[in-house]
Write a structure and sequence with these properties.
- By secondary structure, the chain is an alpha+beta fold.
- The protein is built from 13 helices and 16 strands.
- The chain folds into 3 domains: 46 residues, no CATH class; 139 residues, no CATH class; 87 residues, no CATH class.
- The protein has a 5-stranded mixed sheet with strand order 4-13-9-11-7.
- A hairpin with a 3-residue loop joins strand 14 and strand 15.
């Protein structure tokens, strides 16, 4: 029986970009020899092919220790349910019948999504209001529902399984968002605006309810130290496009902030705001890594 398997690792290319010959493959990739047991026991092969065999590090835990995960809201018809303030006014539907909601990851530029950012985008005509109708409906709402029925929205898979079809999938506000797609590092956002999000982001719900803890965790997740390991848990598509599912986030290694002193949590929280204001400042990035390492040391058994 074969005991060892030889593989070659080329990161971020599609099948149509593969080297034409084994000779070129050897010249442009990393050769890795693995045991059959290693491959069979691994949930993902990419970390092994990169030569990264993870051992438990003192003071570090998987992200699922600190938070739970869900995907964003799936509307079944974004164009119908996600509306601008002007569109709501034209329809005669109150904004109170909607939830603040971000529909595109590109609309969130920094590491913190603030209420002022939401309001500015809404004032500029952004589609940021998620229809959240509940019976009884007003006459104006009934007319809009009929528009959806005339468009055969009731036949769409997600909507056909909802009762009534125009009811919205419910999600509590997530304190932290994780971008689903990205060509660079995985991005985490502190949701200061208390907005919902569609499936462009995944939702993180820390077990600790303190917003300062949420900010500290967001800082850790955006540190270079954590980002380097988080890449191992996603899926890489052609051209280096990274995609993360909610379950992919569970295994990301982070310092155990539950055992981190409050003073250090507060410093991490403050640093998140500094990083958001100056994302290219190398000294701030280095400080983020230092704080993560310090938090892990504080959390490790003495």
């Amino acid at each position: 029986m074969m005991r060892q398997i030889t593989g070659w690792f080329l990161q971020g290319i599609g099948f149509d970009e593969a080297p034409p010959s084994l000779v070129e493959l050897r010249e442009t990739s990393r050769r890795v020899i693995l045991t059959r047991d290693e491959l069979m026991s691994a949930s993902k092969w990419e970390p092994l092919l990169q030569g990264k065999r993870h051992d438990a590090n003192p003071g570090w835990v998987t992200l699922e220790t600190l938070a739970s995960f869900r995907r964003g809201v799936a509307t079944g018809a974004n164009g119908f349910f996600l509306l601008s303030r002007d569109r709501l006014d034209a329809l005669g539907i109150s904004v109170e019948r909607c939830l603040p909601c971000v529909g595109r990851a590109s609309d969130v530029r920094g590491l913190i999504y603030r209420p002022s950012e939401f309001e500015a985008a809404a004032a500029a005509g952004g589609k940021l209001f998620l229809l959240n109708l509940k019976d009884p409906l007003t006459d104006e709402e009934k007319r809009y529902v009929r528009i959806g029925e005339d468009q055969s929205l009731t036949k769409r898979f997600l909507l056909a399984n909802r009762k009534p079809w125009y009811s919205m999938e419910q999600r509590p506000v997530a304190p932290i968002w994780a971008a689903v797609f990205g060509r660079g590092d995985l991005k985490f956002v502190f949701n200061e605006a208390s907005a919902r999000t569609l499936t462009n982001f995944h939702c993180l719900y820390p077990t600790n309810p303190n917003p300062v803890f949420h900010q500290a965790l967001t800082m850790c997740l955006n540190s270079t130290l954590v980002r380097e390991t988080s890449k191992l848990h996603g899926r890489v598509y052609g051209g280096g496009l990274n995609k993360f599912e909610p379950n992919d986030l569970k295994s990301i290694q982070v310092p155990d902030l539950n055992l981190t002193p409050k003073s250090l949590i507060l410093e991490m929280s403050k640093l998140l705001f500094a990083l958001d204001a100056q994302p290219q400042d190398s000294s701030l990035k280095e400080r983020a890594d230092e704080l993560c390492a310090q938090a892990a040391r504080e959390a490790s058994p003495s």
